[in-house]
Write a structure and sequence with these properties.
With about 325 residues, the protein is mainly alpha-helical. It contains eleven helices and seven strands. β3 and β4 form a beta hairpin. About 30% of the residues are buried. Bound molecules: 2-acetamido-2-deoxy-beta-D-glucopyranose (2 copies). It comes from Vanessa tameamea (Kamehameha butterfly). This is SPARC.
């Protein structure tokens, strides 16, 4: 009788843990498609303070939120690895060892923002609009759209755009077909960027670019080509700002490698910084000197107050081929 109970108890535990795995998997899929780019949010924390100024409470509050998002992404990654391992083990057992386990078709699919991979009735992977975004109570997750409308999270904005593109009745109106995130944090009145603040801004921007480049080198997130440029910047002070500026410009352009950084391509530096640095928008506007909505390397160097002759196109050729 006792051993019977023991078996029953074991069975219950097994069922519960399998269910937990499945639940986690669902959770995992949902969270990973909310497309918060961790490096870009972490980078906002590396922005050097203005000369003689301390960060206000609000800035700290936002920075904490960004750090949390970063932690969450790391958590998701480790969680995914763990679940895959478990699934592999289960698969191995079922197949008596060496056979490949039944593969989840969604593992190979990367859905765009606001979408989640689901398996349809034919067993194929399809990218559907996220059903429910995680309910956010934390004000630090809020985002401001280009309509100056505050949304609870980036997930909610991307989901809404997805619903409109798929002609769902949940689409709130035609103006949401192209809804965009303007910046992270709730919408607010942007203070005017004073001339005194603007005059210090190129220096802070240069420092920031180098800080991110160094941070990424330390975390081994740079390609060998850019790692070489980072070493050069460390060793030769005259190359410090130029190499960082060239790298960031190439990095932003890596979307399409057309040797222009479009307004759209500026998103990764603009959106996370807006709430913290109200001068970023006017600064970037100034960079586009001829107002053709794209920034050349020469324009980029000029607005960072770098010597134009030191700036040569040294983009990683590897990204060229990949694009
Ligand atoms: C955007 O919304 C915020 C908060 O509601 C408001 O303070 C600000 O003035 C608005 N900005 C613009 C440009 O309308
Ligand atoms: C540092 O970089 C500058 C500019 O590219 C170059 O002229 C100079 O020779 C370099 N110095 C050393 C020590 O490599």
């Amino acid at each position: 009788m006792r051993s019977y109970l023991l078996v029953l108890a074991l069975l219950a535990v097994t069922i519960c843990s399998t269910e937990a795995v499945l639940k986690r998997r669902k959770h995992r899929r949902l969270r990973t498609t909310t497309t918060t780019e961790p490096a870009m949010l972490a980078a906002a924390r590396l922005f050097p303070p203005a000369a003689g100024a301390a960060r206000g409470d609000e800035a700290e509050h936002l920075e904490l939120g960004m750090a949390e998002r970063l932690d969450e992404t790391r958590f998701q990654e480790s969680e995914r690895a763990r679940v895959n391992e478990i699934m592999n083990e289960v698969g191995d057992e079922n197949n008596g060892g060496n056979e490949v386990f039944m593969e989840d078709p969604c593992l190979k699919v990367h859905c765009s923002a606001g979408r989640v991979c689901e398996i349809d009735e034919h067993g194929d992977a399809v990218c559907n609009c996220i059903k429910d975004c995680p309910y956010e109570t934390d004000s630090r997750r809020k985002v401001c759209t280009h309509h100056n409308e505050t949304w609870p999270s980036d997930c909610d904005v991307y989901r809404q755009r997805c619903l409109c593109l798929d002609n769902s009745e949940l689409c709130r109106g035609p103006q949401y077909h192209h809804v965009q995130i303007e910046y992270y944090g709730a919408c607010r009145e942007m203070p005017e960027c004073l001339e005194s603040e603007m005059s210090d801004f190129p220096r802070r921007m240069r420092d920031w670019l180098f800080n991110i480049m160094r941070d990424m080198a330390e975390r081994r997130e740079l390609s060998p080509h850019y790692l070489h440029m980072e070493r050069e910047a460390e060793a030769n002070l005259t190359r410090r700002w130029t190499n960082a500026a060239i790298w960031k410009w190439c990095d932003l352009d890596a979307h399409d490698n057309d040797r222009f950084v479009s307004r759209h391509e500026l998103f990764p530096i603009r959106a996370p910084l807006m709430s913290l640095e109200h001068c970023i928008a006017p600064f970037l506007d100034r960079c586009d000197e001829d107002d053709d909505h794209r920034i050349t390397l020469a324009e980029w160097g000029k607005c960072l107050e770098l010597d134009e002759y030191e700036l040569e196109d040294r983009c990683d050729e590897l990204t060229d081929e990949a694009a």
